[in-house]
Amino acid sequence: MKIARSGSAAFHGVYEIQFPSPKFTWNAGEKLLQVRQTRVEDFSSNARHDYALSITVAELGQLIAVAADAAMQDPALFVDDLSKVLAGLTRLQAVAAGVVRA
Question: What's the predicted TM-score (pTM) here?
Answer without folding.
Answer: 0.81
